[in-house]
Write a structure and sequence with these properties.
15 helices; disordered N terminus; GH; EC 3.2.1.93; Alpha,alpha-phosphotrehalase; Glyco_hydro_b; O16G_dom_2
């Protein structure tokens, strides 16, 4: 059974990502839980999204905040019980909200029973569930680097063999060459699909196939030997046929350092692999010389060029996820906007510029109210293993000053997005009755969900409009994409075109006004404004008609719709 229209609800959908640890604590633990999520389902329903993507809630030692799974069949007691999860499924379904679960099958926790059996025992039936190699010249088998810093191999001293960990040493990579591993993965996903889970977000799924000769990388960190690896499409087709197609599951693959050509195949319309893909190239526009751990402004022309490449490349060939924020990325209003004087305007503009593209938008908790980076000033405030590892490496080994590294972390750390959700102006932003696991951003008294709901022109209500428009205006889903001003240093202006409809999305990415001329072939006077982030543009008493020459104010956005069938 291939994907058919009844399973393609996700093409006009918007999905809300919840990072449970930071969403809502139902008590005083200081960490969020499933009951806390249930208590906020009406809020999520009001926002208007179609589904929740839930980051991992499985049993885990939480070295990487749940992406180190110790038992795929159990709920982490920190988050609640399986009964709580079943109640979440039931309550969400009653509100017409689907549930997408995060699944991590590139690696497991070293606390998983499979790995504990394999450790120290070459004869364990689970030894071949992981990737082991003998030392080379008394050291690690290759020079591959962990994504979290340091070499990607760790020694099992009793057997004098190394196991591969592309992430933390507590996250051992699974050996997908072993058919028993692939069957275990099918069994796990089937278990949750049988429960009624509507789909799966597959963590770093394009890393599951490693080149088997395990060579040193003389030009990089090893990723070219395992990214979009030799058997990855074969493996995904096998899992898809056995599970995803059987249950009609929507699937989104997180793709690390991937290419457009591979993503066209991962998300092809025949549904043989995945529904859609996450790629991160646009979020490297502020990586100076490709290095994340630098403090740098974003390259605006590069950002637009990347969007153009992916929008045109996936149109009619595949399907992408649209996003600025997630649990691994800083808050976009701090990253690309202005999180002080123009916070609301820039948050709305950034949302518009991505929601009007083709794909499925993902909204990360707090993004819909314009939450900002917390601007931490001490390393003691950080909890993220990647951030603390890089701090130690760069300060203690590379000689970077503490002040410089803290400035880098304030811009790039994953903890920027993991601060507790700001619900109201009560202590700890209403997130917990206890002490939060990570400090709440200091601006919560004036920036919170309660205030956003009450203010009719808030970022929250603007997101509601974006979510509605995707279902009402067909060209947003079906139209092709043309960047109208690829070399403009201030404006991101693109056209979406279908047979009978044209949509023009104009966005000023900076704090200065700018005048522009829309290409003459687009008859702006034939259209109407359907969205804008400045007051007055759409109100009947002062509504404007679109013109060919426009002046956009700081961080202003405007969306023009032309219906050619009228």
């Amino acid at each position: 059974m291939m994907m058919t229209e009844q399973y393609e609800w996700w093409r006009t959908a918007t999905i809300y990502q919840i990072y449970p640890k930071s969403f809502c604590d139902s008590g005083a633990k200081g960490t969020g839980d499933i009951k806390g999520i249930i208590s906020k389902l009406d809020y999520i329903k009001t926002l208007g999204v179609d589904a929740i993507w839930l980051t991992p809630v499985y049993e885990s030692p939480m070295v990487d905040n749940g992406y180190d799974i110790a038992d795929y069949y159990r709920i982490n007691p920190d988050f609640g019980t399986m009964e709580d999860f079943d109640e979440l499924l039931s309550q969400a379904r009653q509100r017409g909200i689907r549930i997408i679960m995060d699944i991590v099958v590139n690696h497991t926790s070293t606390e998983h029973a499979w790995f504990k059996s394999a450790l120290g025992d070459k004869n364990s039936p689970y030894r071949d569930y992981y990737i082991w190699h003998d030392p080379v010249d008394g050291a690690e088998p290759t020079n591959w680097q962990s994504k979290f810093g340091g070499n990607a191999w760790a020694l099992d001293e009793p057997t004098n063999q190394y196991y591969l960990h592309l992430f933390a040493k507590e996250q051992a990579d699974l050996n997908w060459e072993n058919p028993k591993v692939r069957q275990e993965v099918k069994d796990v996903i089937s278990f949750w699909a049988e429960k009624g889970v509507d789909g799966f977000r597959l963590d770093v799924i394009n890393l599951i196939s490693k080149q088997q000769d395990f060579l040193n990388d003389d030009v990089g960190d090893g990723r070219r030997f395992y990214t979009d690896g030799p058997r990855v499409h074969e493996y995904l087709q096998e899992i898809s046929e056995a599970v995803f197609q059987k249950y009609g599951s929507v699937t989104v693959g997180e793709m690390s350092s991937t290419t457009l050509e591979h993503c066209q195949q991962y998300s092809a319309h025949d549904g043989k692999e995945l529904s859609m893909v996450f790629n991160f190239h646009h979020l490297k526009a502020d990586y100076k010389n490709g290095d994340k751990w630098t403090k740098a402004p974003f390259d605006f022309l590069q950002l637009k060029s990347i969007f153009n490449h992916w929008q045109q490349g996936l149109h009619a060939n595949g399907w992408g996820a649209l996003f600025w924020c997630n649990h691994d990325q800083p808050r976009v209003v701090s990253r690309l906007g202005n999180d002080e004087e123009y916070r609301e305007l820039s948050a709305k503009m950034l949302a518009t510029s991505i929601h009007m593209m083709q794909g499925t938008p993902y909204v990360y908790q707090g993004e819909e109210i314009g939450m900002t980076n917390p601007k931490y000033s001490s390393i003691d405030q950080y909890r993220d293993v990647e951030s603390t590892n890089m701090y130690n490496i760069m300060v203690n080994e590379q000689g970077v000053s503490e002040q410089e590294m803290l400035a880098i972390l304030a811009q790039k750390s994953r903890d920027n997005s993991r601060t507790p959700m700001q619900w109201d102006a009560s202590p700890h932003a209403g997130f917990t009755q206890g002490t939060p696991w990570l400090e709440v951003a200091s601006n919560y008294a004036s920036l919170n969900a309660e205030q956003a709901i009450e203010a009719p022109d808030s970022v929250f209500h603007y997101y509601r409009k974006l979510i509605r428009l995707r279902k009402e205006v067909d060209v947003i889903t079906t139209g092709d994409y043309t960047d109208l001003m690829p070399e403009h240093s201030q404006l991101f202006c693109y056209k979406r075109q279908s047979e009978n409809q044209t949509l023009v999305c104009i966005n000023n990415y900076y704090g200065e006004s700018v005048t522009c001329e829309i290409p003459a072939e687009i008859k702006m006077a034939e259209g109407d404004y359907i969205l804008g982030n400045y007051a007055g543009l759409l109100e009947p008493e002062c509504a404007q008609k679109p013109a060919q020459t426009l002046t956009l104010r700081p961080y202003e956005c405007r969306v023009v719709f032309i219906d050619h069938s009228m």
